[in-house]
User: Fold this.
Amino acid sequence: MKIAAVVGARPNFVKIAPIVAELRTRREASVTLIHTGQHYDGPMSDAFFANLELPDPDVNLHVLASSATAQVAEIMLRLEPVLAASRPDIVLVVGDVNSTLAGALTAAKMGLRLAHVEAGLRSFDWTMPEEINRVLTDAVSDFLFTTERAANDNLAREGVRPEQIHFVGNVMIDTLFRYREQARESSILKSLGVEPRGYSLLTLHRPSNVDSEQTLRPLLDVVSRIQSETAVVFPVHPRTRRQLRVNGHMPAMANLRLVDPLPYLDFVQLMANASCVLTDSGGIQEETTALGIPCLTLRRNTERPITASRGTNRVVGVDPEAIYDHWRRAVNGQWPAGELPELWDGKAAQRIVRILMEAR
Assistant:
């Protein structure tokens, strides 16, 4: 069984790592790891591969593009001859980034069987680029691996045949559980001068939050209010840093720790020891639920509803007063403990590989 795994962004690496590890235990399987280059900052990609014990990519497409459309198109152009030469039995894509969609469309156009890990998640917000990627990828997939039962329901409503849908759990949590102990050895808290539960963690990268001055300014105002009471650690996404630089938004905040994007193990250590996490990321909603850490999602919706109905996540929007009020309750201990969702047990990759092997 020849499997070609297409990845391109840091969340992809976290999701593919346990699947690659499981495939490498199977003598009857071979996997080709294809890196599109979507996240092309070399040191950071290298750090993720090292932290996650991923082998070096078999192929790196080195795609650099100035727009999402150009990125998807260029990945497809460079990926097609790679897949034509290897003719894999299954093309495997994960998540919802541009590389996911490009890999899916290329496989579909070439008549190759396609498997999508993290299928069926829906925000129902078509202004999100990821929503377009998710829906289109699912529409052309043969195997749809889901993380929660709401995703199964979404796919069923969209007409996906029941035998194509496989509820397997969450590979991000596989990776989290596998490396949680190693993350505890990280010295990142000491480096930043913070104590366990003595800081909040912030991430912002979605265009709806950072590209609009009307949204970004109030978010920075509430961050300023929070950091006046506790330290705030803010790993700054390249997109967000560009916007802050262009618009001159970032005022001086004595208790705000601005850092570059962090390697996986350092970031897990920061999440696990935060009093509260404020984010617009999808994956962080899941990781904080698994860690039992209060999470405020700075969006008006989530494609991961299980994190809010069963976990420690609450979707609070972008109103500064609502954010501050929820943050205050979280750090005061007035927050639901949450519970681990069904099948988030560290064995999702095993289930995925077993299903793929049975599909020969």
In short: The two ends are 7 Å apart (CA to CA). DSSP finds 16 helices and 13 strands in the chain. The first helix runs from residue 10 to 23. The mean pLDDT is 95.
